[in-house]
């Protein structure tokens, strides 16, 4: 079995995270975090790394989901892979992820 690729250090400008999943039929679903903050984001990333819940990004469709690192302006400054459904559920709970768009269209709010 090949050794996993080493992770680059987390961008020092991290503010929060977002996620992207590629669904069957080449559809995409984007998720945004409800909140984070630099210190909390760094701590969460260290936990995920220690638990194997984040990996070097292989690109869309090559892992269960992509984890985008966002800066204070909301710009994507880095990305990582989320390797499994179980790892995605962990990120989903920890970040309070919610669907923000599907196939490039804004998510419809039910409330």
User: How many β-strands, per DSSP?
Assistant: 6
Overall helicity: 10-25%
Q: Which structural class do the helices and strands define?
A: alpha+beta
Whole-number mean pLDDT? 86
What string, H for helix and E for strand, traces the elements in order?
Answer: EEHEEHEE
The strand order across the widest sheet is 4-3-1-2-5-6
**Tally the helices: what do you get?**
2
The shape is: globular
Strand percent estimate: 25-35%
Q: Describe the largest sheet.
A: 6 strands, antiparallel
End-to-end distance: 47 Å
Total tally of structural domains: 1
Q: Which radius of gyration do the C-alpha atoms yield?
A: 14 Å
**Segments where pLDDT lies below 50 for 5+ residues?**
none
């Amino acid at each position: 079995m090949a050794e996993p690729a080493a992770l680059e250090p987390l961008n020092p400008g991290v503010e929060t995270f977002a996620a992207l999943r590629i669904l069957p039929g080449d559809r995409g679903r984007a998720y945004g975090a409800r909140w984070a903050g630099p210190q909390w984001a760094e701590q969460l990333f260290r936990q995920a790394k220690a638990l194997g819940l984040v990996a070097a990004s292989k690109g869309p469709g090559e892992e269960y989901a992509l984890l985008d690192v966002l800066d204070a302006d909301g710009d994507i400054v880095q990305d990582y892979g989320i390797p499994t459904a179980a790892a995605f559920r962990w990120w989903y709970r920890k970040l309070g992820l919610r669907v923000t768009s599907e196939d490039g269209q804004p998510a419809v709010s039910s409330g």
